[in-house]
UniProtKB/TrEMBL annotation, chain A:
It comes from the Bacteria. It is found in: Cell membrane. This is Phosphate transport system permease protein PstA. One of its GO terms (biological process) is phosphate ion transmembrane transport. GO terms for cellular component: plasma membrane. One of its GO terms (molecular function) is phosphate transmembrane transporter activity. PANTHER family: PHOSPHATE TRANSPORT SYSTEM PERMEASE PROTEIN PSTA. InterPro entries: MetI-like (IPR000515), MetI-like_sf (IPR035906), Phosphate_PstA (IPR005672), Phosphate_transprt_permease (IPR051408). Keywords: Cell membrane, Membrane, Phosphate transport, Transmembrane, Transmembrane helix, Transport. Residues 146-361 form the ABC transmembrane type-1 domain. It is a multi-pass membrane protein. The chain crosses the membrane at residues 23-43, 49-68, 80-103, 152-172, 184-211, 217-234, 266-287, 339-361. It comes from Pseudarthrobacter enclensis.
Automatic annotation (TrEMBL), chain B:
InterPro entries: AAA+_ATPase, ABC_transporter-like_ATP-bd, ABC_transporter-like_CS, P-loop_NTPase, PstB-like. One of its GO terms (biological process) is phosphate ion transmembrane transport. This is ABC transporter domain-containing protein. It comes from Pseudarthrobacter enclensis. PANTHER family: ABC TRANSPORTER I FAMILY MEMBER 17. Keywords: ATP-binding, Nucleotide-binding, Translocase, Transport. GO terms for cellular component: membrane. The keyword Nuclease does not apply. Coiled coil: none annotated. It comes from the Bacteria.
Amino acid sequence: MTSTLTPVRSKRSQLTKGQLPKYAPYAVLGAALIVGAAVMALIGFNAFGWGIVSALLFAVGLVSWSAAAEGSRKAKDRLATCLVVGSFLIALLPLISVIWTVLVNGIPGLLNPGFLGNSMNGVTGVYDNRAVEEGGPVLGGVYHALLGTVQITLLATVISVPVGLLTAIYLVEYGNDGRLARAITFFVDVMTGIPSIVAGLFAAAFFFAVVGPGTKTGAVAAVALSVLMIPVVVRSSEEMLKIVPNELREAAYALGVRKWRTIIKVVIPTAISGIASGVTLAIARVIGETAPILVTAGFATSINSNVFSGWMASLPTFIYTQILNPTSPANPGPSAERAWGAALVLIILVMILNLAARLIARIFAPKTGR
Amino acid sequence: MSKRIDVKDLNVYYGDFLAVEDVSINIDAKSVTAFIGPSGCGKSTFLRTLNRMHEVIPGARVEGEVLLDGDNLYGPGVDPVTVRSQIGMVFQRPNPFPTMSIRDNVLAGVKLNNKKISKGEADVLVERSLKGANLWNEVKDRLDKPGSGLSGGQQQRLCIARAIAVEPQVILMDEPCSALDPISTLAIEDLINELKDQYTVVIVTHNMQQAARVSDKTAFFNIAGTGKPGKLIEFGDTHTIFSNPVEKATEDYVSGRFG
């Protein structure tokens, strides 16, 4: 019996003929960077221009090489890849830039002794001047502002979550897309677009009218923030309730369970992870608001732990006042340092909230597994 | 623990649209009744009117009477929730509650209604219901695992266990096997045969062999055309419907010469 096996000659597979080698994009990138640097050297070097020129050279080089070697379909694919990756990098640029700037400028402020534990009470320009002239430590901190931000945001959440969630439940479960439901949806959409300063003025005017002129407390700010927060909570909860399968509601009804019990025990638990993360993101959205807090809670330099009386500081207004009215007009450096530190604290706070949203979503998510 | 259902001159509307016209039917206690017919002929709609589940759909309403052992489901002051706790329902697609364990799914009818139940009683109820649904041996070691982790056929039997845990008089099944493989289908059919010792079972099916296998009586529904109301064409012993129907339309349908 003769063998039917013929030895396979080692050669390049016919199936991969006409493809660019794997290293092609890297080779083109390297060439683009070198040529880009050369071009920039002619017209005056800067890093930003180098990046732009190299990116353009890379795209042109890779696409034309691909068009020559692989044909037009593959070249279009490469072009699309270049555009997608390029857009992604452009979108990422401001984010990285912001985080970098805040980190570089904020860390010295954050590392000042007692920055998180002290307020600005009693810190005057004299100390700042001394810190600059004699190299002493920068005194003062954000404790009062951090406390104010946390309290105001917490109160705003306590106000907006019940209102927002109940509105969403009405819209999804009881509204039947009737006239009232459509009116509510319309006004919620309008509320989403309200400029934050208008929300602040509304809250201020409301409390002036109800409590008395000049009422500026943390609670007023919380009302202003909840005006901004409610539409976000309504919208996100509504979406989450809508995606609860109708079959689950029917299953509960078929067991002889009343509608309100079905909503409380079946619909909301099924949607709770989405609702919770939506609420957390709504908090993250309002925690950095400055304008409505300026007109409603004023700004304070000392610790005020009562949201219902007296002016209250918050991180955004702290940043604003430190930059605009430095504690020592002659030496604004320490104030700027404190402002950047406060900005870093604010960003960390928002980041923690976003992580918390993911954690909450994971903890509450319906369990699967065997 | 089972009651008969008598339907008199029932019309079902969605808004102004007449979906099912003039159905009169007598469903015996402790029997299996199958509804067959082409898609869109109103079998499921009619089934849902038997425990007022159609009211979940906005605009749906009925005219006529549905008597559960002589009591009209649509009489004045009758609470649909009371009706549904006596007439349970199993749906086309298995729908266990994803947030609950297997045990909690079985107890859902009790727990969602906030009835107090001791742990011992709950254990007995869970075991009895799961045994009744032929699922006990497969899940007894993992009662605390989520119900959504079971296979499709197991989930459907879990839904049946959940339905019988509230001890209804009647169980309605809306194409319970259409999303299942043949082996799970067989398990459900065996179960239906056992259920009829205690319950009145009404089942909608597209599978005529299934109707022939499981039911004592069969009702054939049909529509004259799109936009026309569905009607009950013929109702009788399953054997008669499949071997010697009175109506020409029934014969065409069961012999596959439809249309």
